[in-house]
Specification:
alpha/beta, Aspartate Aminotransferase, domain 2, Aspartate Aminotransferase, domain 1, 2 domains, eight-stranded mixed sheet, two-stranded antiparallel ribbon, 38% helix, 13% strand, globular, binds pyridoxal-5'-phosphate
């Protein structure tokens, strides 16, 4: 009694199965008898993306990492080309371009959204700059009007890392559908999942034809199947970026319930905001004015030490919480392969103070209440300590 074995444990994340995933996989295997990529389920998913997000063409990939790598090839990144991106992001945002010989140039983030600070982008532009890669952290939109305006003025491409931003909007436009290219993730930690998976959304039609070739190992296989060429051959660089139909079949089942899944996550997200707002003044929360997709909920602790104590306190009560990111500019590879533009004050601070709380589809409102009440207790306890 009262020992840790009796604690009702709340995981940080739990992959949600929407319902028809395994039926769809059975259909791909038994009925369609098409297991490799670019079959019915792939087409279904790609059509869904164009219909619900936008773009002129969507291509499923094996990951968002793969979609970013395709983007780097499409952008013709070569040795010494520079790419402007936040340091507060996942490694793939930078790695995809480094693989082509590009140099990531890290710009600090805004304190309110934790997205790239658009006011600091122009200072990072040089004659070698090729692209800006805004990351919509937590599904919260970057200042896309300003970013697009800067990019147009300097003739740069905009590649949105919308890995966390499926079905979020900015001024009525879906994220990922605003820049030249948009990259999505369906990794099991994201809102809509297929184990490992992603998509490239092509908004600028000049990339459509070459993207098909890069996707299919640098061959003109798609043109061949459409009867547009009489030989199927090697025509460009490329790789195997397409997922199998098993992956697409799983994803198609998730898309059927995507709006519902995101609506539920948003409700939980808003409940977090509500329960923690004002009561604990020291907690900052994401700006919710834009149409965010409830991807993740974070709070900003006062210090690295306080974060550590809060993680321990929550863990002692059965709640898993996690932090990220180790800023890329201070990571071993980031230091070697990239450079910073300006100071990284907010990035460094958030890397030490941000804490993510559990948020997943099957969480109940009671779960959120339980987490919030523990967070509040933690801060009340500490305040009491300060007074004595
Ligand atoms: C998850 C994530 C990725 C990578 O997605 P994968 O599908 O795992 O390759 C890239 N960028 C950001 C911002 C992410 O959150």
């Amino acid at each position: 009694m009262g020992n840790s074995n009796t604690i009702n444990r709340l995981p940080f994340n739990k992959p949600f199965i929407a319902g028809r995933e395994l039926y769809n996989i059975a259909e791909a295997v038994l009925k369609n008898q098409h297991l490799s990529g670019d079959g019915n389920f792939t087409h279904l998913c790609q059509d869904w993306l164009v219909q619900h997000i936008g773009g002129v063409k969507a291509m499923l990939t094996h990951s968002c990492t793969g979609a970013l790598e395709m983007s780097a090839i499409l952008a013709n990144i070569t040795t010494g080309d520079e790419i402007i991106l936040p340091s507060f992001t996942f490694v793939s945002t930078a790695n995809a371009f480094v693989l082509r010989g590009g140099v990531p140039v890290f710009v600090d983030i805004r304190k309110d959204t934790l997205n790239i600070d658009e006011a600091k982008i122009e200072a990072a532009i040089t004659s070698k700059t090729k692209a800006i890669v805004p990351v919509h952290y937590a599904g919260v939109p970057c200042a896309m009007n300003k970013i697009m305006e800067i990019a147009r003025r300097h003739n740069l491409l905009v590649i949105e890392d919308a890995a966390q931003a499926l079905l979020s909007s900015y001024e009525g436009k879906r994220l990922g559908a605003i820049g030249d290219l948009g990259c999505f993730s369906f990794h099991e930690t994201k809102n809509i999942i297929t184990g490992e998976g992603g998509a490239l959304l092509i908004n600028n039609p000049i990339f459509s034809e070459r993207a098909e070739i890069i996707w299919e190992k640098g061959t003109n296989r798609k043109k061949f199947f459409r009867g547009e060429v009489d030989k199927y051959t090697w025509v460009d660089i490329g790789s195997s970026f397409l997922p199998s139909e098993l992956t697409a079949a799983f994803l198609a089942a998730q898309f059927e319930r995507a709006h519902e899944i995101i609506a539920k996550r948003k409700r939980l997200f808003m409940l977090y905001i509500d329960l923690l707002k004002g009561v604990v003044e020291r907690i900052a929360s994401p700006n919710t004015e834009e149409d965010v997709n409830g991807h993740l909920f974070y709070l900003i602790t006062n210090s690295l030490d306080e974060r550590h104590r809060l993680i321990t306190w929550l863990a002692d009560h059965g709640i898993s919480s996690v932090f990220h990111y180790v800023p890329l500019h201070s990571s071993p590879a980031g230091r070697r392969l990239g450079r910073v533009s300006g100071d990284m004050r907010v990035t460094d601070e958030m890397g030490e103070r941000l804490l993510r709380l559990p948020l997943f589809y099957e969480m109940t409102e009671q779960d959120v209440e339980r987490v919030c009440s523990l967070v509040l207790q933690f801060y009340q306890k500490n305040n009491a300590k300060f007074k004595t």
